[in-house]
Amino acid sequence: MFLCFFSFSQENQPSNFWSNVRFGGGIGLNFGDGFFSGTLAPSAVYDFNPYFSAGVGLTGSYSSQRDVFDSTILGGSILALTNPFPEVQVSVELEQVNVNTNFDSQFTSTRDDNFWATALFLGVGYRAGNVTFGVRYDVLYDEDESIYADPWLPFVRFWF
């Protein structure tokens, strides 16, 4: 009887799942002298409590250098955030992306390339309201295999 009562009482309670979800991400744009790069990276996290959140993100990026190459990067990530203090955010993010690069055969002998790349970032940031500024480190970084030029990457996160 207790089990029946407990089951029915749980059904009548409104779900507050969406009130604990925050959306955010990043956007980037770089250009100059024949070069263009744009990135869109939306994400969503669920706040389990004031100290821990976890979620997912998507990544889309396009880069091109006139008469040299064009590259598309598409993928996703899983993300965990902890706030040991209100102003400090520590993060872990596993990112998996597909990189498709096409080279202009008129100007280079490099062959087109399509591959998957994985990064595991450990980060720390300063949090002020809905914005976090910080730096993250790719522990899987390999100079010959990574899509990033350096294992250390600054970040800015926005959450709403």
Describe the structure.
It is built from one helix and eight strands. The chain is mainly beta and 160 residues long. It has one domain (2-159): Porin. It has an eight-stranded antiparallel barrel with strand order 1-2-3-4-5-6-7-8. A hairpin with a 2-residue loop joins β1 and β2 (35-49). The radius of gyration is 20 Å and the shape is elongated. It starts with a helix and ends with a strand. Residues 1-9 have low confidence and may be disordered.
Walk me through the topology.
Blueprint (H helix, E strand, L loop, with lengths): L1 H10 L9 E12 L2 E15 L2 E14 L3 E17 L2 E16 L9 E16 L2 E8 L13 E8 L1
Antiparallel strand pairs: 1-2, 1-8, 2-3, 3-4, 4-5, 5-6, 6-7, 7-8
Q: Tell me the Rg in angstroms.
A: 20 Å
Shape: elongated
Number of domains: 1
Please give the count of helices: 1
Q: SSE order, as H and E?
A: HEEEEEEEE
Structural class: mainly beta
User: Mind describing the biggest β-sheet?
Assistant: 8 strands, antiparallel, barrel
Give the integer mean of the pLDDT values. Answer: 88
**Lateral strand order in the biggest sheet:** 1-2-3-4-5-6-7-8
Distance between the termini: 43 Å
CATH topology: Porin
How much β-strand is present in the residues?
over 45%
Ranges where pLDDT stays below 50 over 5 or more residues in a row are 1-9
CATH-defined architecture: Beta Barrel
Q: Considering DSSP H and I runs of 4 or more, what fraction of the residues is helical?
A: under 10%
* Total beta-strand segments: 8
CATH secondary-structure class: Mainly Beta
Oligomer: single chain
